[in-house]
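Records of this kind hold a single protein each, on a pair of labelled lines. With that in mind, the following record should read easily:
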Amino acid sequence: MKRRSFVTATAAALTAGPIPERHVDPALITYFEKQLEGHYRADMMLGPHDLIGTVSAQYELIDRLIRAAAGETRRGLLRVGAAYAALVGWLYQDAGDLGAATFWRGVTQEVAMRSRDPQLIGYSLVNQAQVRTDLGDGLGVVDLCEAALAHPRALVPKVRVLALQQQAHGASLSRDRRAVDALLDQAEALVPRVDDDIPWGNACRRTANYLEVQRATCYGRLGLSEEAGALWSQVLDVVPETARRDRGVYLARQATAAARAQDPDQAVDIAREAAAIAVDTRSVRMRRELSALERAMRPWQDTAAGDDLTEVLAPISEGGRRG
């Protein structure tokens, strides 16, 4: 990653110098929390690039307010600031910039520690585990999730669900299906108990078939193509139109499962919609999923199905060259 790009990516978290004293209205905490929910929804529809500047600028403002605030207002701003930093980290991760994502995951953990909120500290460790998942470091994922779950009684069910499902991803990277199923079964038992009003980390409530998504993804890594494909069909039946970016990722994974199950024509049919969404959202994560599909389709590269896939994916390659 070029230094100039990294400085641009991190500038919002590195405002130097003292901040003048000022009154900070505690109502700003609620304001930023409501804005956060809107950002989560926009991310599902737009993808990362259109939101990174907006969310990181708001984090920069929150950071300045934290420096000027005191007492409970300061602690509340620390909590919401950690949630904003986590979202910026996710947006960079989805955009394919793991260096910036790692930096912002570190910011999330720092602010979470300063808030002394055990829920946020656990959440920050899960966020770091997400990056290790993208790096293919299964053992690192497990280490971080086990650290998050070291004192489970101190955690609300939602944070435990997030840590358990992420640990399952680590287990899948280590080829341990038994652990994958055990961890996801534990998480599934906790989902009905998720009833907090915390504004961050609500994917397990907002996303239909949330744990089936995780299981299908893990099964795909494990090479259980038919089982993964069946789960993706179940998931995609209920994905709302507003979750367009997520739908694209799921379709790409379903197409890869179809190819690995020796059904190249179905894989190409599924890939058509995924490719169109990838062009619109510019999600690098989705493009990586489609690259995995290309690899799975190599046995058919000299067939009609292979030619069709090349045509389907051509707009993505052209968009990448323009970017």
